[in-house]
UniProtKB/TrEMBL annotation:
Family of the protein in this entry: Belongs to the BolA/IbaG family.
GO BP term, pick one: iron-sulfur cluster assembly
Tree of life domain: Bacteria
Protein name in the entry: BolA family transcriptional regulator
InterPro entries: BolA (IPR002634), BolA-like_sf (IPR036065)
Length: 85
């Protein structure tokens, strides 16, 4: 996941957290795909709304969305937004 996001979006900050252990026994966890949280800061998000940012993350992850990832929580910000937090 990290490599795909770095290649596509050149983030200045990236945190990928595997929360799968919190969903043990959950219907979606039975097929082996995981639950993840991504906090990503990239200039590529400038001028984009949250839906476009999420689509960019999904596009960067490509087939991982169907093979490895069951659920994905995303926090996508520009460097300016991150600096203001």
């Amino acid at each position: 996941m990290r490599a795909a996001l770095e290649a596509a979006l050149a983030p200045v900050q990236l945190e990928v957290r595997d929360d799968s252990h919190r969903h043990a026994g959950h219907e979606g966890a039975r097929d082996g795909r995981g639950h993840f949280h991504v906090d990503i800061v990239s200039a590529a998000f400038a001028g984009q709304g949250s839906v476009a940012r999420h689509r960019a993350v999904y596009a960067a992850l490509g087939s991982l969305m169907t093979t490895d990832i069951h659920a994905l929580a995303i926090r996508a910000r520009t460097p300016q937004e991150a600096a203001a937090d």
